[in-house]
Amino acid sequence: MMIFLNFMKKGSGMKMRIKQVKINGIRGFYYLEDSPHIIELDGKHLFLYGENGTGKSSFLDAIEWCLTGEVEESKTRRVDKREFLINKFCDKKDAPFVEIIYVHNGQEESFCRKVNSKTKFVFEDLAGDHFIDTKRIENFVIDTKQSLWDRFSTLLGFEDLIEFDRRLRKLKNTAEKKYQEITEKLRQQEKELEGLENRMAELRGKFKDSVEEDLEIKLNEEENRSRSERFKKLQEFIINLDGIIKELEEKMNLDEKLKEYKSKLANAQEMITEVEISEVVNTAYEYFKKTEEVTTCPVCGQPIEYYDVLRRLENLKENLSKIINLKSEIRKINNSIEQKQQSLLETAEKVKNLYFHLYKKELNIEISKEEFDRNLISDLETIKEDVRRESDAINEILRLSQEWGRYKEIKQNSEKSKISKETLETRMKVVKKIYDDICDFYEIYRRKYAERIAKELENISKNEVTLIYNKINQSENEVVDTFIIEPDIGNIEEPKISFRAVIKGTQKVVDALSILSTGHLRCLGFALLVARIKSNPNSLNFIAIDDPIYSIDHEHRYNLITYLRELGSQYQLIITTSDRVFYDIIKHQFNGNSFKPYNTSFGSISNCQNTEVVLSIDIKPCYRSYIEKAEEYSYINEIRAASLYARLALETVLFSLAEKVNLKIPYKRIHKITIKDLMGAKLKEELKNYFQDRSNEIEMEFQKLSHHRYFKSLLNGFPLDEKVHYPHEERSSYTVKEVKEVIETIKNFAQFVESLA
Amino acid sequence: MAKKSNILQKVIEDITKEEKNKINLFVEYIMTLYDDNYGLNGNTNYLANKYDDILKFYEERIGNENED
To answer: Is residue A645 in a domain?
Structure first.
């Protein structure tokens, strides 16, 4: 940069003119060992014509990369810069490069940029402004959704700053969200911790007088295990004791029942020996049953009442049955008592063992067969009460122990929660710092970025903008006296650009957008970019424009060319175009010695011989490719594109004929050379004279052409206007069939012309 | 073309030079994104998605400062 400053001469610009460009292995240029593609400029202007895809942009990309270190198209397309730059046929061993030999302050110097090299061109920071991309101007015109600030900033090449501003804003939002999230998380953590502490306090309250440390000792796990075991044994003892008591009670009931039955039996037995009676009764009963007519006793011969005796016998039989049943019941009860006795003995043994196990002393439970003392039950109940008390006490300790376990768990969680909270607090500090830093940085950035763009705009002379605009836009109806383009960065959050115009003759200031058409805006965009170069005292001496007519409508092209001629007196112009007519015109508007014409074709860039002939046709006849294109488009019913290519094919053929016969065309407005002009210059007649032996055929072929309404339109001067370049816009259209006929006719005509040669 | 070459880099450098007192870790982080091939702009393409990366950078830097 210091070297650069030494060279600066204020107000005079950096006298730098490109002499030669050497390209090897970059973009569309093949790598040729020791033999790079050389494009000679000799410090003159360079006009480069070529169809799409033939290398114009490759050439401009190459010099842009060499002088600025960047190739913006790769960024636009979002492809790797290296990938974009290196020619696809390069080998790994090749070393692609671009070298520019230039004259600076009278001295020849050169700069060579190689892929992977970090060399910096001395004027690298300035060079970018000298490349005018007309697509950028078009975007400025059509991108009406953006604010004026963004549109002007993008036009001037500051989109990286705008983009970064958007990204930064997005990041700021993310940082804010993250900060809010962590704040919320911390709040929840605090809430959880508070809940845990409350629960701990609640549990501590349950321990009442117990001191935590004592509890810790008292309720240690091992002791609790033995407590738990003892508790189980006590429970088992109680259950068994309950069993004994229950069985004792049942046994007592049985004893009572036995007593009752025995008493009943005694009563019955007092009256009779049941067996004897039974035998008698049975015999009598059977006898009476068989012989109903007995009226006297068979034993004593006394008269008897048959039914009375029968009833008494039946009663007797019933009573005897009762006695027998009672005896049977008594036997059963005795059996039950015996079994109960046995069970009691077993349970008592169990209980005694359990008791001994629990208290290491003997328990006296006397189960006698004869006597069941209620006192035993009472004693057992007393023992049971004592054991239950102990059991309850152990149970309480165990319960407390469980609570203590819970308390400890909560306490542990609480500790963890505290640690999490601390971690969160630390994280939150970082997150907050990030957010604060981004906010601070964002504010500074916005100010710097706004200042940078504002300064750039302020440095551009608005008078120069108006001057250039008016030159390109010459019109009797022109109303703009001066443009006012003022940045307003008072509000950093929303920088603005005030874009106004002073109305000629009135000094009235109006909103410029309200009076400027799309075409006017294109002119303004171009004027602004050129004015920026002109306003910069340190500007370099060249301007590269990629297809300048891309965004300038036809009516203004002549003015543009006139202005470019004026601009060319100060700056070395490097102009590319895919519009052949424009190319021809611009060549004729410049002094033949002041420029180098080139055309690109598939394969290479070739230097064209510049002549002063009105129509110096230095373009290789390429009507075939136009026909192919026309056919291609007609095939997919793209009628407008097909008819445009058909027209280009016809023009190419007719211009080649014009060249052949050295046709002289009188013209006033050179930018409007049309097929009509060629015909008006008597191309057909000149051809007939030139090829006298085939004059009839020539007449016939031209007649075939003129039969079609498409040609009538062309022959009537259908101009190359903006509609041609914007085929999507509405214009007169042809049917598919018509266009296909047109293409076929031109093809035949071209073949005829070839046969002439 | 005509795009301001490395303009973002230049603005950030201006900030680091002129706003020394206000400079913060975030600018240092941004500077780490500079890349020879894509410059600063290319690597800040998805800046909003780099939050975790920024957090890591901050934690490391703050951690180092605390250790010092």
So the answer is: yes
